[in-house]
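Dear colleague,

As promised, here are the two records you asked about, laid out in our usual form so they can be pasted straight into your sheet.

NAME FIELD: protein one
SEQUENCE, THEN STRUCTURE:
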Amino acid sequence: MRYNTRMTKEQAKEIYADLGYLSQPFPYASAPFLESYARLLGLSPTPARTARILEIGSSYGGNLISQALFYPQATFTGIEIAPTQVSVGKTYIDQLGITNLELLEADVNESHEHLGTYDYIIAHGFYSWVDEETKDNFLRLCKEHLAENGILYMSYNTYPGWHKMDSIRALLKFANKDIDTLNHREKVRHGKTVASKLGALMLEYDTVKAQQGPFLQSLRQTLQKQDCYVGHDHLEPVNTPVYFHQCMDHMVEHGFTYLCDCDLNLSFPAVYDETLRTKLQDLAPHDPLAREQYIDFMLNTAFRKSLFTHKGATPKRITETSVTDTGFQHSLEQFLFTLRIPSEHLESIFEDLAKGMSISENLVNQAPISDKATSNSARNAAGSHSLCDIPKSPKTDITNIHDAQGASETDIRPNSVHSDTANPLTIKELVQLFQQEGPHFYVKNNTIVTYTGEHKIPDMCLPLFYQFLVEHIIQGGISLSVLEAEHPFKHHIFEEKKSYIPERYIPFVEIMPQEGVNAYIYPGNRYNDPISDFNEEDLEFMKLLSKPTTKHDVMCKIYEAMTEESINPLALQQSNKYTMILAFYEEMIHRMEYFGFLEVEETQFS
């Protein structure tokens, strides 16, 4: 039910002034994410680190601020119709010292000649929240200002899933039907109160509770959300969800080609589900977009995050044959992968894959003969690694790796190890590799490369490994980013005497958690994941890493800060506070690695 299909500029300004908006980063609405997905589909987008990015409906700039900080060579522009949000956002951008981000008060329905050409255009939460005329004007703007090889990101509410929310929206609108004295925020709270009372009444009747289970679940989810979300989704004059196929038709009219959804499960689930592949192929043998619409009907999809480029592009769809295609496998070498699957689940995942692919039981459970016959010293002399080198218990201590690097001039780095000397891995060793060496890796010449070195995958295991890799990229268990060839792990692994934290991040951690700022804007890490727990300890630890240093120097400074007494590394190791300080150091290093604050001193890599 729609009570209005048009929202004026004045209404929009009034609503945003009353209600505000929590402006936060979204990983899938960031240029590095979009670049990675475009490259995965065989396109050649502009590198995100030097790109020109435009966000439409940028609010306070929360989705752009972190990106601008992490990618100082890129340029960012945000346009927003609400002047108060532009003004507040500019204030914080100035305080943070960010010079490559500009927020502009603008309306897509008005002239946009002042805008330039952009490699990435981002519109999160815009398309289905505006009327039809504004939708067309928005797409004309995107068509005119998107670079030739540019990528457009657009999120929108979708049917059939949003049908369950239409009733909630109608209820909240009806609760405020005859009330003209409340502002928008007050209407949200009044609507929530009425809806809560109605929900409680429904729960008193077992028959109603049983019959209206889905409605009550949607109502409960809505009442738990923040006022700004409820106000914009349920009480704004316009919220027009669409079916996927309707959106695709509209995009074709405006000259765009669909790439995929950011949730790859909506676009390519047939890669790992043979039954689904066969049945959908019967329903729509020559139309992959129709197959995606059927998936939406199956899953009751309520929200999509779609990527587009200009008409004429020829993206490569990921299919079941991609897994064994050497060209596609080679294209995966341009990415750094991050494993997000809990390590305790890996063994069962690989075992299930092996059973499905009829992999030899010997290959699953035993080490290769060549590994058994090769001594550890011979492997080390060759500068290569297999998991036979890593103690099975306890787990490898990452701080010991740091110690080894500080003590030796022959640090083992991926670019110093040659794949032809790496020993092959069995499946069990593959599991142990991911469990013990951390989540980050890349692939080169059918070899897994981690921070400590290269790990050759035997030919018999290659189908299983690529099936695992592609399947979990699609399912979201493995994320990807474009590989920085010279220093692949520099943002993710602290290296003694090389890693440091640039000064530009200090104001970021000082200002963003402040009361008042965090009511408007959430900070993000290098991948634009929101961060809610910056604290004083982070700030003080970052200052200790302002220049390349060593683990023991940092630990000594932590000791001195705690006790106001100086100490040398040898005395610290003998101190009863050593274990506590080591645990704190490890925790803080992992936080800095997660935030992505680490850089390397380039002179150390001459």
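NAME FIELD: protein two
SEQUENCE, THEN STRUCTURE:
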Amino acid sequence: MNRIESQVRKARRRIILGGFGRVLSIAMFAALVIATIAIAVPALQPMDVNFTVWVYGWLVGAVVVAFVVAAIYSIATAPSVEEVAAEVDKRFGLRERLSSSLTLPSDDRDTDFGLALTADAEKRAGQLEVAERFALKPSKIGWLPLSLVPVLAIVLLLVEPATESTASSTKVSADEIAQVKRVAAQLKKRIQQQRRKADSENLQDAKELFERMEADLDKITKREDLGRKEAMIAMNDLKKELEERRGQLGSSEQMRKALSQMKGLQSGPAEKVAKSIEKGDFGQAKDMVKQLASKIRDGKLSEKEKEQLKKQVEQMKKQMQKAVAEHQQKKQDLQRQIDQARKEGKGEEATKLQQQLNKLQQKDGQMQQMQQMAEAMNQAAQAMEQGNAAEAADALEQMAEQLGDMQAEMSELEDLQSALDDLSQSKSQMRCQNCGGGGCSSCQGGMGFGFGDGEGDGLGRGSGAGDRPEEEGDTNSYETQVRGQVKKGKAIIAGFADGPNRKGISHEDVKNAVESALSEESDPLENQTLPRTEREHATDYFNRLREGK
């Protein structure tokens, strides 16, 4: 019986050691991964530790923890003696002799059957070579910890602990944070003024946009660790929002150009309306159109004025329709050019044409407004032709409403441009190292913007000095050309030269001769002796040609 137990316990030890090796490999791999990360931490964040002690501590600790975990797991999951005996029977093909003898009750051991079973099991156990069937062989999982050795070596060679000096350079200074907050607070005040102005003008979209900007600026002022770089990124995001909204609104320049190009507009009641639209004063044009509608409804216009008004409305309608048609034609032409360039594989040219098409598409809103105004003018002209004053007045009032919408868009555009200017000025103040964000001639370009105490050049909200800078504006000028009457000048004799006149060759004659020689066709070669084979071949060719072959 002692021989049976000895062999079973030997097999049990080998099973436990094999499991310990497998668990140790996995635990060692996990521990070394954690140790490698921990060793790299001082390079990312300064720590008040001895780097050498830190490295050896993590390495030794990882190894010790891996052994302890593997040992505890192996002991906790170790198989019992009976389970090992069954495994020995299975591997050696003993048909449960060892496991049966070990589990035999004590009452049955002294029976003939028990004695025979025990004797046979001991005989078989004495012949077993447990080391052969329960061999301790290395497995593939044992390579896991070794795979981390190169990584750990690279980390140990390259990683250097960060010092407090390098860390201090990445920290945002208190002065910088204060400057960011100061500038953000000033910009917030200006945006609040823009928001109140938009609210008073009933510009709901602009009001909501400015409210969002106020909320974002409020977050900047409340941050206690926000540096200049992050603040600049936030400012750029605000700028993108303003530019996107400005792109959606477009510009009123197209309608102004359409009416400024109109020639021969007859005098009459709508003459001042056209001039106001041409100047971009849609609010004044709206009031004038409403007055005309009221006069038509009340019958205060004479027949002559009605006829003049009808002709003027028709002229403005045709000009607007012409501008809309030209816009659509330009878009179609560009689209055809883009398709053609893509078919020919000219990707760069197609991209540039697409950018031009995108700019034209941004004006679709203005073109739609012009089309609607042209339709309202057409309705008014038809109503006046039919003598229906009420319908003509309604059409003009519809036109007045459209002019009012355009005036609102112009006001919003002005507010957006003002906000963009304020934003650009705030970014300059935020970068300024002289005034700390308060505003000075250095960050304001000597223009007196902002709320600083220094003197400027007549711009901004503070006190300034000097003239305002000049800006080129639209004067509706046009180019013209006056041809001068060029005549022969007087011949002046500067002196005399003795001796006979002699004709020479001028540079121009030489130039003409060279160009003429280059442009002439080359003469065929003559008197050139060909090799025999080529000569015979040429002779044969001409003989066949003569014979008609």
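A couple of things worth noting about protein two: Residues 302 and 309 are 10 Å apart (CA to CA). The radius of gyration is 49 Å.

Best,
R.
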